[in-house]
UniProtKB/TrEMBL annotation:
GO MF term list: phospholipid scramblase activity
Species: Manacus vitellinus
Keyword list, A-Z: Calcium, Lipoprotein, Palmitate
Free-text function comment from the UniProt entry: May mediate accelerated ATP-independent bidirectional transbilayer migration of phospholipids upon binding calcium ions that results in a loss of phospholipid asymmetry in the plasma membrane.
Top-level taxonomic group: Eukaryota
GO cellular component: plasma membrane
Name listed for the protein in its UniProt record: Phospholipid scramblase
Family: Belongs to the phospholipid scramblase family.
Matches recorded under InterPro entries: Scramblase
Length: 221
């Protein structure tokens, strides 16, 4: 573990990660987009990290689902251990040359890997890459992500897209929560022996999937 990026030793023994978006009262009452805050927990519900999104009011309210952001993830001592950077890019299958690409750094300033959207006319598809931009894993979502009263699963697959090794799940959390707030609850399941840098990239992928497919308050019904 002495070779791990500082702070990522918490992920070393985890095969399940829970991401819970905290409710913002102003956003819930007025419908105004505020900076998102998250708690990242283990399967026992114990907080491992907390995260906050940084961008400006223009991005949050006018570019909402495609907005650029930097998410800083800190451990319980307040030490920033992961940084997730998303530039402003296109969110349409009709523009395959400018699709989503997100960088995950750990420690901040050092690239751990990337999440790259792949063009597909029907399914949400992404590639997980390492720091050298070599393909490591695939993420494939369902045709419909509305998830009528049920969880929505994005499968984590080997590069051949035949073998499923895990999933990123958007948990359905009830009618009131989904209609009146944008709060999201996600679960990440991956092999326990997956490189911790790739686990950090999976957390970044989860944030990207949330904004791309579940940002609107009616999503997830």
């Amino acid at each position: 573990t002495h070779n791990l990026p500082p702070g990522l030793e918490y992920l070393n023994q985890l095969d399940r990660i829970i991401i819970h978006q905290q409710v913002e009262l102003l956003e819930a009452i007025l419908g105004t987009e505020t900076s998102s805050k998250y708690e990242i927990k283990n399967h026992l519900g114990q907080r491992v990290y907390f995260a906050i999104e940084e961008n400006d009011c223009f991005d949050r309210n006018l570019c909402s689902p495609i907005r650029s952001f930097t998410i800083r993830i800190a451990d319980n001592m307040g030490r920033e251990v992961i940084r997730v950077i998303r530039p402003l890019r296109c969110n349409s299958c009709w523009f395959p040359c400018f699709l989503q690409e997100l960088e995950v750094q750990s420690p901040p300033g050092t690239t751990a890997g990337y999440v790259v959207q792949n063009w597909d006319p029907f399914l949400p598809k992404f590639t997980i890459q390492n720091q050298s931009k070599e393909d490591v894993l695939k993420i494939i979502g369902p045709y419909a992500t509305c998830g009528c009263f049920e969880d929505v699963d994005f499968e984590v697959k080997a590069l051949n897209e035949m073998t499923t090794i895990g999933k990123i799940s958007k948990y359905w959390s009830g009618f009131v929560n989904n209609v009146f707030t944008n709060t999201a609850n996600f679960g990440i399941q991956v092999p326990v022996d997956l490189d911790v840098r790739m686990k950090a990239v999976m957390i970044g992928a989860c944030f990207l999937i949330d904004l791309m497919f579940f940002e609107n308050s009616l999503d997830g019904l």
